[in-house]
Amino acid sequence: MARKFFKSKNGNIPVPLFFPDATRGVIKSLDTSDLEKTQTLGILVNTFHLWQELGGDVLDKFEGIGNFMDFKGGTISDSGGFQVMSVIKSGNVKGKVTDEGVIFHPTKKSKKILTPEKSIAFQIKLGTDMVVVLDDFTDPKSSYEEAKDSVMRTISWAKRSKAEFEKICKSKKLNDTERPYILGVVQGGKYQDLREYCTKELVKIGFDGLGYGGWPIDENGDFDFESAKTIAEGAPEDYFLYGLGVGKPEEIVALSKMGFNIFDCVLPTRDARHGRLYVYDAISIEEIDVYKLNFYSFYTPDKEKYFKDDSSVSTACDCVLCKRYSKAYLAHLFRIGDFTAGRLATIHNLRFYSLLMEKLQKSI
RNA sequence: GCUGAGGUGGCGGAGCGGUCAAACGCACGAGACUGUAAAUCUCGCGUCCGAAAGGGCUACUCAGGUUCGAAUCCUGACCUCAGCA
């Protein structure tokens, strides 16, 4: 039977759910009380960043990232698999991927190695409600052979991750209702037989859910729904299906129809800081219809034409920006470059996404 | 009134004889952003024609002048700022 809830330390969260990215233990520009006001039910934090920048001792002291942030919602930790691509494969930080793990050099002299085991162990320290296995990202430009290589490594790492996870759970005496969820990640790029194979092998290892890994957008900007479908069809009914890094509102709507029920993405928060707000094509919250075409549009706040506009950004929103401030005031804040502009825009966009999920939850 | 400095695009500010429709910054406009080294990046920004390549026109306060050629040199006018009366 399909999952109806995501179990967190702080209570059950209805699915489908969207957790914005608090990569380094903070939603950029927001504190936890701001975040709560957006009615965001959970967040995603990142192993790769927090492992280097925060460390396990602080997490031990505070008993996890949730307590550290004083956040009472759900938490998921990403493994660092995506950072292998975005940081190392892009050449920004020297490093390489081996069968053992990811070796990288944050500075010229230092050397660190992130293994599947270390990733899981650190995520347990993070104390998140779901941990994600370290995966080897399939570069979208990969040949079939390269993609296959990343799939084989991903499967091998998934086995090691699962073994480490069971070992830690046993030593901590965590039973099945106390332990966090563990998610496998499907790689394989655009090659459907690889996606299918990876899905099958991960299911054999046994997880609570599967993530749609890799980069789901092609050169033309089109979303790869086919791979999502392959994963959804290959996964047991009670598995969570997680669209890692997905996505645009319409992509979340489409994937949720296919059975995907967990999402995270930087878009609402990054777009907010970059001056792009999401606005429903509706007069009121009740009238929002996320299944109609063009159910939302972008609002760019810092335009001359809004300098004297005393209306609110959206009447189909109950965030502090829309309830309290005018377009003119927001435009002013963006124009002078005050941090408050990014903060209010982030609050608004996160409320847009939490409303989106509320609408999707009601319709299933 | 005298002495000195100066007047460049929406603004600030380079340029000081040709490679100038004029650096750079701001402002303005358009676009990008998908498991965050992005509160960032890209493009446009006199005007007209062109999809583009490119071409035409008008421009560096105004009026004359020197020169093959002037935002750049000379003369005058007007205006601004600083110091002195």
From TrEMBL:
The entry's keywords: tRNA processing
One annotated GO biological process: tRNA wobble guanine modification
Domain tRNA-guanine(15) transglycosylase-like residues, every copy: 7-364
InterPro entries: ArchSynthase1/Queuine_TRR (IPR050076), TGT-like_sf (IPR036511), tRNA_ribo_trans-like (IPR002616)
GO cellular component terms given for this protein: cytoplasm
Keyword flag tRNA processing: yes
SUPFAM superfamilies: tRNA-guanine transglycosylase
Protein origin, superkingdom: Bacteria
Protein name according to UniProt: tRNA-guanine(15) transglycosylase-like domain-containing protein
Organism: Candidatus Woesebacteria bacterium GW2011_GWB1_40_12
